[in-house]
Write a structure and sequence with these properties.
Largest sheet: 7 strands, mixed
Order of helices and strands: HHHEEHEHHEHEEEEHEHEHEH
Structural class: alpha/beta
CATH class of the largest domain: Alpha Beta
Distance between the termini: 42 Å
Shape: globular
CATH superfamily of the largest domain: Periplasmic binding protein-like II
Helix content: 40-55%
Number of helices: 11
Number of strands: 11
CATH architecture of the largest domain: 3-Layer(aba) Sandwich
């Protein structure tokens, strides 16, 4: 096992915040500060510059971080290799997913994966794509299914499925009877959108921009943090939303919502992202292979 002080240092270095590191490690801030002070005393070097409003790594801190990442990765690899000597797939899998994927796609996949490998313990974090990419970069999740191609250094990814988005409204909405709808036809109606940081929001804003409509040109009534909240608002007659067809299959089948195809179509790729150039356990690599195969077949 790696020195606990290195684990604490790594968290502080990645978050550049004693408070956020303490939250991530489920520790108190004084305990985190004490561990860092001990490490600085051991190496006889200051690892962080403490300034008003934040902290930054010193040159010594940068050096310690480069070694800490390698030491922690080797510790993880040792534990996994020892577990794999039993020839039985087992161990933890820290998985992230955006709201749409986590709520409407992953439950079935996780059920099937669990049936194949019952001793794998999956922990799922649902958050927006931007947040999850940061978590992958920090190595606080093993991999994530998101709606944006990776952009941060140290994060790799692969496309695993196409997804279509549609205009979604209540059955009595003025546009509910259309077969298709153009962006220009939507600017006169109240719109319910996703929150800042959502990959879906970024995609929709780019789509409207390509049609010559700025984000401020939409009559945005409110911004909500999940597809479920958007669906409830739309069903309540508060306006239209743009959602993945995956998210509204059930409601459309029951007649509670209508999904109208956008013209031109709005499609996106779903990505499986993970840390780049890092040892992958058999659990992680098997889950990647499983998900890619299942989503390609479904798509």
């Amino acid at each position: 096992m790696a020195d606990r002080r290195l684990q604490v240092f790594h968290a502080v270095a990645r978050h550049l915040s004693f408070t956020r590191a303490a939250e991530a490690l489920f520790m108190t801030q004084p305990a985190v500060t004490f561990q860092i002070r001990q490490l600085e005393e051991q190496y006889r070097a200051r690892l962080f510059e403490r300034r008003h409003g934040g902290i930054s790594l010193t040159p010594a801190g940068e050096l310690v971080l480069s070694y800490a990442e390698r030491i922690l990765a080797l510790g993880d690899e040792l534990e996994v290799r020892l577990a794999e000597m039993t020839d039985e797939m087992q161990g933890p899998l820290l998985l992230g997913a955006s709201a749409s994927i986590g709520e409407y796609m992953l439950p079935r996949l996780l059920g099937e994966f669990n049936a194949l490998y019952p001793r794998v313990r999956v922990t799922l974090m649902v958050a927006n794509s931007e947040n999850l990419e940061q978590r992958v970069a920090e190595r606080s999740v093993d991999l994530a299914l998101v709606e944006l191609a990776p952009r941060l250094p140290g994060v790799a990814g692969r496309s695993c499925r196409a997804d279509e988005l549609a205009m979604v409204c209540a059955p009595d909405h003025p546009l509910a009877g259309l077969a298709t709808v153009r962006a220009r036809e939507l600017v006169d109606y109240e719109y319910v959108g996703r929150e800042t940081g959502s990959a879906t929001r970024q995609l929709i804003e780019h789509y409207f921009s390509e049609q010559g409509i700025a984000a401020r040109g939409l009559k945005t009534l409110m911004e909500l943090g999940s597809p479920e909240a958007l669906k409830a608002a739309v069903a309540g007659g508060l306006g239209f939303a743009i959602l993945s067809r995956l998210a509204v299959e059930r409601e459309c089948r029951l007649g509670e919502l209508r999904a109208i195809a956008l013209q031109p179509p709005l499609r996106r790729e779903l990505y499986l992202i993970h840390p780049q150039e890092r040892f992958q356990s058999r659990v992680v690599s098997s889950f990647i292979d499983f998900v890619v195969r299942q989503l390609h077949e479904a798509g």
